[in-house]
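Why do we care about 3D structure at all? Because function follows from shape, and shape follows, mostly, from sequence. That is the central idea of this module. The next example makes it concrete: a single protein chain, its amino acid sequence, and then its structure expressed as tokens.
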Amino acid sequence: MNTPRNLICSLGLLCSGAASAMTVTPFGVDPSAIGKPESAFTASYIDFSYQATVDQQAGVGGSAPFQEDGIGFFSTFQHPNLGNPVSGTGLNSSYKLYIRFSGEGTTSANLSGGIDGSFTSFSAQIYADVGMDTTFSLPGVGAGDGDGDLTVAGNGDDILVAQSVGLLTSQFRVFPGLANGDFDVEMRMVSVDVDPIAPGDQVFFTDPFSLVATLKVDLNGVNTQLNGFAAPPAPFTDASITGSGNLSAVPIPSALALMSIGLLGLARTRS
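And the structure:
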């Protein structure tokens, strides 16, 4: 598993100035697409904090199925390094930006007394809260309804600006101690045209985001607080998890790069 950038920083192995060693694809942002006055800009990451609720069904053999529903609140655009914020973006002063996500998967108990898991399905939608008035609430820990639903209010004027179109890979760990675990989800994502009357002329996330081609996006971070969890195969309802992380676009190797990798492997085989 690739260790999330936030966890590396927390361990003192990577600070803001060294984040450029992590290969990402800068992406464009155009606030005018949602009716805001800020100029278009380029970023490499978006920092966020998140809250989620998790339900786990009874399992067998040390594993169990689970369902998760959560919300991430974006705080800062960073470019090109973590700790180097982009100024004048309007985020959290002119509009807010959040990501709704949900997924299902399986967990298993690990030898250190924690939990390993992965998603078998995962979906995410990024919204612009243009009125800065949307509120969210999670069910109480152990409420027992078992549906894990996140309640949203005041979102009538929110604008969908990007959405996932397929899960690629995912891994997470939950354990007591430092950071309470970490997660990493890679998925395909596309921009959403906010003006259906004139398609293509109002897009919040711009190149390499597009309306048709799917961009590889990485969502990763660390957990800071856990409540109500139990190791599989034990069931639980409405456990809560909070944490922080970042979202970035990840470059996809070109055909030429893949060919070079193949030739290098062939050369090593023959040597």
